[in-house]
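Title: Comparing notes on inverse folding

I've been comparing how different people in this forum approach sequence design from structure. To keep things fair, I'm posting one structure and asking everyone to reply with a full sequence. Here's the target:
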């Protein structure tokens, strides 16, 4: 990355944030000291470096401000968002053998609505002054408001990018004359992935139909939601409390994803696509900026270890669509409790989202800090340059910030506004699309054995009927969950 260009984007992003939030001086954290120690439990889903950074921060809090204020924080990692949300639901509903509700917990807006409906989430407004709230990036803070109640405090945010094994891509691009422009739109990515499959298939002429997958997605749900938004549709309509099934738009998204997966142009296995990069199963994937630190610096090729170069590109667009990308990242909620516990929990969150702590937590892995003045400070610029001069993983994170800043200045960041039970749309999209893709892939594999061409196979897949079947299965799933929807 070129340092001069890099700092230009930092400046652009800083100006963007300046428009969103007024500059603020550090606000003093008001003491809540009590005589008896207050012990608070914090549940989260972070793993690896993110977990270590959070736990280091908690140790620091306990030894400094926590000691002064007689507050002790204990953290518990639940390993994944799904596991954390299941535990939260069980605890909030009082399921037998479930643990008591934590005092503080990581939470996405849709799950927060579910827990709030049970009367378990504290409104944070009484614990944060207007001046303190003005210090957060306004669009980040807005995600946590429901009916003028602040239920979620932003901790760190992320967006999605296209990650590439540049070593493998360059070899393919040199052989085919392609450039990065072939990865700008979903339509061109489909064509490029087909070319990659055919190119790798030709390398083993004695073994037909063994071409390799080019692209994976960490979240096919985000592919659908962002694709709808790029096409002018909010699939989750919080105003009417409906899931919007816009059939022409969904047909476009369905056909591209299902056909590419059926033909082994798109794919992946296991939990994270970065693992598929390391195994050599994929050469690219769509993932969160927060996954940058997990991108491998080497892969296992045949029986040898091969170092690879990293490349990050902006999130793909649909031709003619509005530049839109998902804004995501769980914030933290405080469980309704005594006034003393709620104030103590709020004190910790104020401290954790302070400049030094928030910058350290976010920048270890590609998250975006949530305080506006962080981006305007020299410390942030120095930290970015330090990353760019660090080890390979740190350089990867620095590149991610570069591309993320470009997206902020050129894309609309989209955060879904949920309504009651709308959180179920994500698992329903995943399960129904996975089923549809597996069925189409089995059919395509059978047709390949009959030595049909790619064009013949795609024609024979009958995507129109498969789309109708998918919509029917999605409708039934929504009905079973009691979620209202509108088909247009």
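Reply #1:
Here's my take.
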């Amino acid at each position: 990355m070129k340092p001069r260009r890099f700092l230009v984007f930092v400046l652009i992003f800083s100006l963007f944030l300046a428009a969103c939030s007024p500059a603020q001086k550090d606000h003093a954290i008001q003491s809540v000291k009590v005589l008896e120690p207050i012990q608070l439990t914090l549940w989260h889903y972070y793993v690896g470096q993110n977990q270590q950074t959070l736990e280091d921060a908690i140790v620091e809090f306990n030894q400094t401000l926590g000691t002064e204020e007689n507050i002790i924080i204990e953290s518990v990692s639940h390993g994944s968002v799904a596991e954390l949300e299941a535990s939260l639901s069980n605890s909030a509903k009082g399921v037998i053998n479930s643990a008591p509700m934590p005092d503080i917990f990581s939470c996405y807006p849709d799950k927060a609505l579910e827990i709030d409906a049970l009367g378990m989430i504290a409104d944070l407004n009484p614990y944060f002054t207007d001046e303190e709230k003005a210090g957060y990036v306004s669009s980040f803070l807005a995600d946590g408001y429901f009916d003028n109640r602040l239920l979620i405090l932003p901790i760190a945010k992320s967006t999605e990018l296209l990650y590439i094994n540049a070593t493998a891509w360059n070899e393919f691009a040199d052989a085919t004359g392609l450039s990065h422009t072939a990865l700008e739109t979903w339509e061109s990515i489909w064509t490029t992935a087909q070319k990659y499959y055919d190119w790798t298939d030709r390398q083993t002429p004695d073994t037909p139909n063994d071409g390799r997958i080019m692209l994976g997605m960490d979240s096919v749900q985000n592919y659908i939601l962002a694709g709808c938004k790029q096409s002018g549709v909010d699939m989750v309509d919080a105003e009417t409390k409906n899931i919007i099934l816009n059939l022409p738009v969904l047909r476009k998204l369905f056909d591209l994803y299902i056909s590419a997966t059926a033909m082994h142009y798109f794919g992946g296995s296991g939990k994270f696509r970065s693992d598929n990069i390391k195994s050599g199963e994929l050469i690219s994937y769509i993932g969160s900026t927060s996954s940058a630190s997990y991108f491998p610096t080497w892969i296992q090729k045949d029986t040898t270890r091969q170092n690879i170069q990293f490349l990050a590109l902006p999130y793909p667009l649909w031709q003619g669509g509005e530049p839109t990308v998902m804004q995501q990242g769980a914030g933290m909620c405080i469980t309704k409790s005594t006034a003393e516990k709620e104030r103590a929990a709020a004190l910790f969150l104020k401290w954790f989202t302070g400049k030094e702590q928030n910058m350290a937590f976010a920048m270890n892995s590609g998250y975006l800090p949530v305080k506006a003045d962080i981006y305007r400070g020299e410390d942030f610029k120095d930290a970015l340059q330090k990353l760019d001069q660090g080890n390979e993983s740190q350089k990867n994170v620095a590149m991610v910030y570069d591309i993320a800043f470009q997206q902020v200045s050129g894309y609309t960041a989209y955060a879904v506004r949920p309504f009651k039970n709308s959180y179920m749309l994500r698992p329903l999209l995943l399960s129904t699309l996975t089923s549809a893709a597996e069925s189409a892939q089995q059919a395509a594999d059978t047709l390949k054995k009959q030595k049909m061409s790619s064009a013949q196979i795609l024609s024979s897949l009958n995507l129109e009927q498969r789309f109708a079947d998918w919509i029917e299965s999605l409708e039934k799933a929504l009905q079973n969950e009691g979620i209202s929807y509108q088909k247009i």
